[in-house]
Specification:
Structural class: alpha/beta
Order of helices and strands: HHEHEHEHHEHEHEEH
Oligomer: single chain
Largest sheet: 5 strands, parallel
Strand order of the largest sheet: 2-1-3-4-5
Distance between the termini: 30 Å
Shape: globular
Number of helices: 9
Radius of gyration: 17 Å
Length: about 210
């Protein structure tokens, strides 16, 4: 009882500090610190790891209780960075993951397919042995010229993820047409519009439900 009371007071203090901190990075650090404390008693039900696409989504539809959803995704994250996010989630006891990634490696680092394969294999090795969850395949962007390479990394990551026991979710038909992101599904050609973000979360939840994980 004393331990629970201590944790409750700790959470209130951190929440108060969080409210007065305006920096997004500091808020994220506070939120993760809260999760670390709560995870000592109850591990998170889901861990969201990935880049800005996952980071900008509202994952509350997955939540049944506070702290069910551990959000570690971060804008600009590469596959190597996402592997580190998985290690963090694993340390908190997470066993069910929603994963996205690969676009930053492809679009901004111009990583060759072999490097993306190596980095994604390394990411998967960081998962707990009993991990379950879904891989959200990379959506097309507004630049049609990038579609073939996006399709190429998606095919690669789908095969590796499914071999590891993860489901793959592909929203290409809903978010894009002929390899080009639909205007209503993006604000800048790369990131999600509110509608696209909602569809992404819904698709992840539906697949988790189908697999008995939600």
């Amino acid at each position: 009882m004393t331990q629970i009371l201590f944790i409750f007071v700790f959470l209130l203090l951190l929440l108060g500090a969080l409210l007065v901190v305006s920096d997004a990075g500091a808020r994220r650090a506070f939120r993760i610190a809260l999760h670390r404390r709560v995870a000592r008693l109850r591990p998170p039900r889901y861990a969201i790891v990935g880049d800005s696409l996952a980071a900008q989504c509202d994952w509350r539809p997955l939540r049944r209780r506070p702290f069910d959803v551990l959000r570690l995704s971060l804008g600009g994250a590469t596959l190597k960075d996402i592997g580190a996010q998985i290690v963090e989630a694993r340390m908190m006891g997470a066993r069910c993951f929603v994963i996205d990634g690969g676009l930053n490696d492809l679009l901004f680092d111009a990583a060759p397919l072999a490097q993306i394969e190596n980095d994604f294999r390394a990411l998967l090795r960081r998962l707990p042995e009993d991990a379950r969850g879904v891989l959200m395949l990379a959506p097309h962007v507004a630049d049609a010229a990038m579609a073939p390479r996006i399709d190429e990394i998606n095919a690669l990551m789908r095969a590796l993820a499914e071999a590891r026991g993860l489901a793959a979710v592909d929203l290409a038909t809903q978010l894009s047409h002929e390899g080009v992101r639909l205007p209503e599904m993006t604000d800048d050609g790369l990131h999600f519009s509110p509608l696209a973000a909602k569809l992404w979360v819904r698709a992840a939840k539906e697949r988790l439900l189908r697999d008995g994980l939600a």
